[in-house]
Specification:
Layout: H1 14-26, E1 35-38, E2 42-43, E3 49-50, E4 53-55, H2 80-84, E5 89-95, E6 101-109, E7 112-114, H3 116-129
Antiparallel strand pairs: 1-4, 2-3, 5-6, 6-7
């Protein structure tokens, strides 16, 4: 999943929360000037509202990640080109006990699967970054 968490009282807005959480979880200080914008808010499975923030971190080779082991088990990246290959895209179908069904996107990468809210945010980002290609 992406860095994230609850807004602290010291956070001015969703962008400030995202920048703080990225610093706390990944050890990456992202400048507010690197923020491209905020996607539409989404509900999570617990009824909380998630406000995805998109930022340009620059070349991955230039990043030094220092993940917080109390919050992050593993870090991996996926190139945009990988996400755009149809063989790496799919959908997962869910059905609830009441019979309600829904479908969510999934992105494949070897042992890793990007699914759930992370895949939804990834899909929304791809629709903005490469309209007509995704």
């Amino acid at each position: 999943s992406f860095p994230g968490g609850r807004r602290d009282s010291a956070d001015g807005d969703a962008v400030a929360t995202a920048l703080r959480e990225t610093r706390e979880e990944l050890g990456v200080a992202v400048a507010a000037t690197s923020v491209w914008g905020q996607l539409r808010t989404l509900p999570d499975r617990h009824g909380m509202t998630v406000a995805p923030v998109v930022a340009n971190l620059g070349p991955l080779e230039a990043l030094t990640l220092n993940p917080n082991p109390d919050e992050v088990e593993e870090v991996f990246t996926l190139p945009l080109a990988h996400l755009l290959h149809e063989e790496n895209q799919g959908y997962t179908h869910f059905r609830t006990a009441s019979g309600y069904g829904y479908t969510l996107p999934v992105f494949l990468n070897g042992p890793h699967k990007v699914w759930g809210l992370t895949a939804i945010i990834t899909e929304l980002t791809l629709e903005l970054l490469v309209p007509g290609r995704y």
